[in-house]
Amino acid sequence: MVKEKELEIHTVIVDGESSSFRAALSRSVLGVTWVKFKRKKQAFYKNRVHNLAITQSVFNWLYESLLTRMRNLSTYKLKTDLKPLWDENGKIRAVSDITVSVYMKVGELRVKELQVYEKFKSVKIDLFYSQTEFSSQELRSKVPHLIESMGKENFDYHEFDFSAKEGKEMANAYGVRGTPTVVINAEKKLENPDDKKLQQEIENAFAPVVKSNEEAQFIPDPGAKSNIESLAQILQKI
């Protein structure tokens, strides 16, 4: 019995001209085929010509089908989703679940330069811990390490012993009821967060400012009007 494998593949969005569409389809199908079956060596390489021919035939069929329904394909953008079916040695036996998405370029948003402002409001992080809890001590080692990896100059970090006077006063001000708790910018409270949650919330609070000295410009695409008219004609036939 022949063993078969299949995998869904998505090409990048490319110009609608035939050469770009063919190249994207070939790179995706043949590239994935090589990665999946290169270990088969000679058994795989003898199928190279077959796979090239199949990919070319798929391209021809799809592109001709598009041309019968749309004109001036070169003014559009195309993206293909498909699912090749291979035998155990990487020979393409079929291609299924094919979708070619057609995008229309309306225009371009242009910005000459975005400047990154080095100085911005630092992220305030307060850790409330207990001297006797393992989870508190573990978090005391993790938070500084995470801050260091993101640039400690960008943070205002403080630790508070929950049982000490200052710690009790700050906990009361923030509404902290237990340990370990991390408070971000005096608002976001994380009670004994796992590593993923802790990193995600700190990264979300870390927001450098970017600005432009000039307004962004939107430049309409010269072919957008004719594409819209062509699309309207296609929709009328549906």
List the helices and strands and how they pair.
Elements: E1 4-6, E2 9-10, E3 14-15, H1 18-37, H2 42-45, H3 48-67, E4 76-87, E5 92-104, E6 107-110, E7 115-117, E8 123-129, H4 134-150, E9 155-161, H5 165-174, E10 181-184, E11 188-191, H6 195-205, E12 209-211, E13 217-220, H7 224-236
Parallel strand pairs: 8-9
Antiparallel strand pairs: 1-4, 2-4, 3-4, 4-5, 6-13, 7-12, 8-10, 10-11
Helix pairs in contact: 1-3, 4-6
| Number of helices in the DSSP assignment | 7
Q: Order of SSEs, N→C?
A: EEEHHHEEEEEHEHEEHEEH
Strand content: 25-35%
Number of domains: 2
Rg over C-alpha atoms, rounded to the nearest angstrom = 29 Å
- Give the class from helix and strand content and strand pairing: alpha+beta
Globally, the shape reads elongated
DSSP helix fraction: 25-40%
Characterize the largest beta sheet: strand count, sense, and whether it forms a barrel: 5 strands, antiparallel
Please tell me the overall pLDDT: 89
How far apart the termini lie comes to 45 Å
- What low-confidence regions span 5 or more consecutive residues with pLDDT below 50? none
DSSP E strands, number: 13
Task: Write a brief caption for the model.
By secondary structure, the chain is an alpha+beta fold. It contains seven helices and 13 strands. It has two domains: 4-104; 115-211, Glutaredoxin.
Characterise the protein shown here.
It is a single chain. By secondary structure, this protein is an alpha+beta fold. It folds into two domains: about 5-105; about 115-210, 3-Layer(aba) Sandwich (Glutaredoxin). The chain contains seven helices and 13 strands. The protein has helices spanning about 20-35, 40-45, 50-65, 135-150, 165-175, 195-205, 225-235; strands at about 5, 10, 15, 75-85, 90-105, 105-110, 115, 125-130, 155-160, 180-185, 190, 210, 215-220. Helix 1 packs antiparallel against helix 3 and helix 4 (about 135-150) packs across helix 6.
